[in-house]
Amino acid sequence: MRPALAIVLPVLDEAPTLARRLQALQALRERGARVVVVDGGSQDDTVAIARALADLVLLAPRGRAAQMNAGAAACPADVLLFLHADTALPPHADALVRRAALGPHGWGRFDVRIDSPRCLLRVVGALMNLRSRVTGIATGDQAIFVRHELFQTVGGFPDLPLMEDIALSRRLKGHGRPACLRERVGTSARRWEQHGVWRTIFLMWRLRAAYFLGADPRTLAIRYGYRPR
Description:
By secondary structure, the chain is α/β, with parallel strands linked by helices. The chain has a single domain, classed as Spore Coat Polysaccharide Biosynthesis Protein SpsA, Chain A (Alpha-Beta Complex), CATH 3.90.550.10. The protein is built from 11 helices and 8 strands. The chain has an 8-stranded mixed sheet with strand order 3-2-1-4-7-6-8-5, with helices on both faces. α3 links the parallel β2 and β3. The termini are far apart. About 40% of the residues are buried.
């Protein structure tokens, strides 16, 4: 039977925190959601951990876009929810997503909270949510969800090493603005803490500006620190 919701997690070397993240999804599995983990070539115990706690574990070429497209193709549920491995859903996210995606919008995202006591990062999260409401563009940290048929109609995620979430949002906006849920997902602050808050903020601003001006996403991905395939 086709599941109502598939939660697709692209992962790469997430062994230290993956078990905790997947444990948090078990209540949704009990209510019928399928959890699909798509590994991009981990060198640690990520795959073994995922096999114990997910409904389906796949291998795919490295890159979030390719991994998420593979997960969506392997589990064609009514609604697809794309969840980063360092992001946690709110309680009853399954009901919230189905109600929003099967309504007039067809796709959407949650508000985001960056899990950190730093006031600056709380402000960053609030600005991310405001920007998304104004522009109709969602980021992967906000747990994008979409009706399966609409995802197929727009051709899924473009095969980009970076900015795949923005590119998908642009495609989906052609079919309507997103449902912007005020319930929050919590996302890890590790990216900001590892590289410095202001440095990360300025880097993301520069990369997004360059992308909108037509820069090659592959060049931007290297600047961001992604490892090539």
